[in-house]
Amino acid sequence: MTTHREPFDSVLDTIGETPLVRVHASPDEVPVYAKLESFNPGASVKDRIGKYMLEQMLESGELPEGGTVVEPTAGNTGIGLAVAAGQLGIRAVFVVPERFSVEKQTLMRALGADVVNTPTEDGMGGAIDRAHQLAEELDDAVVPQQFSNPLNPEAHYETTAPEIYDTLDNEVGALVAGCGTAGTLMGMARYGREHHEETFVTAVEPEGSLYSTLHDRDVEEAPYKTEGIGTHNPDTNELFDPELVDEIVQISDRDSHAEMQRLASEEGHLVASSAAANSLAALDVAERAAAGEIDLPYDSVVTVFPDSSERYLSKGIYGDFESWEG
Ligand code: PMP
Q1: Is residue 274 flagged as an active site residue?
Q2: Is there a contact between 126 and 97 (Cβ–Cβ < 8 Å)?
Q3: pTM, to two decimals
Q4: 306 CA from centroid of ligand 1 (Å)
Q5: Which cofactor does it need (predicted)?
Q6: Of the candidates 121, 142, 163, which is a domain's last residue?
Q7: Which residues are CB-contacts of 292 (< 8 A; sequence separation ≥ 6)?
Q8: In the predicted model, is pLDDT for residue 155 greater than 80?
Q9: Any catalytic annotation for residue 35?
Q10: pLDDT recorded at residue 2
């Protein structure tokens, strides 16, 4: 273990370089490793894109010094952007559908951002429309729009992926991650394919989500409780490239809920539902590889635990399945 001996100058300097930890339920022959993104200062994987997108947009001049970012966000991206905006002298306004957790909205406000709520039934589409409308009303405002901004996957191509490949001496057999915007998986997959073209890539979504239709699978749309991943309208998730993905798997809310509890009680991970879905999908890839059903270039599977369960305690995530609000 190396110790970082110099004090950091800014909280932004502590983003990234998160730990990669073995998931012990995985087979010895094909271990699963999870990147613990709650170690970031805003406690999620989205700190990476908050910092990266703002720094790049400031550098290119797209975002003026002292300008405003307006973003439709389910929450973690808002927190990541708010952490970065606060330190970079940028004002932040977030448009959040009501369904998303109160904790995240409270944290965004604490970081100095303004939060505007849109009705749950209008979905992310309603939040996106409102964000563009707000940006037009303001001077100097930019909508980073994580759902279509190439800087989102680029942040993971530039940071998350090289950290993983470096930690495992490039011996990465498979990458497995849930897709919300798909920025995390696409950035990692593109890095994997460019540097080690045979890396196996699995996209994860909750049952009821429609990414699978992009691989011509006949799946049924339904509401789901797993937060932060999946889509009801894959056409609006422009970053997802079906060709960068070997398979798209679905995990039920019930299985994710049980895995969330198992990860806490057996492995000491206080992680949320999307991490649990990722864990189950990664364990399944590892088991199929160990059984000889799929060929991996290396005997390892890497996934991401995007955030912490503490952010969702008010939704009853550690109670019985029925009382989990989702
Ligand atoms: N898990 C959680 C908790 C998230 O907030 C997000 C982002 N929506 C994801 C997973 C998925 O990340 P991405 O948007 O990069 O696909």
Answers
A1: yes
A2: yes
A3: 0.95
A4: 7
A5: pyridoxal 5'-phosphate
A6: 142
A7: none
A8: yes
A9: no
A10: 62
